Amino acid sequence: MIVTTTPMIEGQPIQEYLGIVTGEVIVGANLFRDLFANIRDIVGGRSGSYERILADARNQAIEELQAEAASRGGNAVVGIDLDYEVIGDTGSMLMVSASGTAVKV
């Protein structure tokens, strides 16, 4: 399935619009991951554990979006937008959402 942030796919005319599709993933922060991330903040450097969690959540959200598009008979999703939001009373959860328009090309 083709997924793109652009409103169209070059060389592949859109034959049918199938509606908006979404995928959302909420991940919780882990105490040990937070501890090591705080140490990284002090000594500098990137937090590989958080980057992996963020990448996994983004990929899962896109997979959900693709599954919804396929269930509607689509073979592509155009205009994808990715959003990241910290949620929860203490900001201990991260939501990654992906939305776009399912189409047939």
TrEMBL record:
InterPro entries: UPF0145_dom_sf (IPR035439), UPF0145_YbjQ-like (IPR002765). SUPFAM superfamilies: YbjQ-like. It comes from the Bacteria. Belongs to the UPF0145 family. This is UPF0145 protein ELI_14505. The lineage of its organism: Bacteria, Pseudomonadati, Pseudomonadota, Alphaproteobacteria, Sphingomonadales.
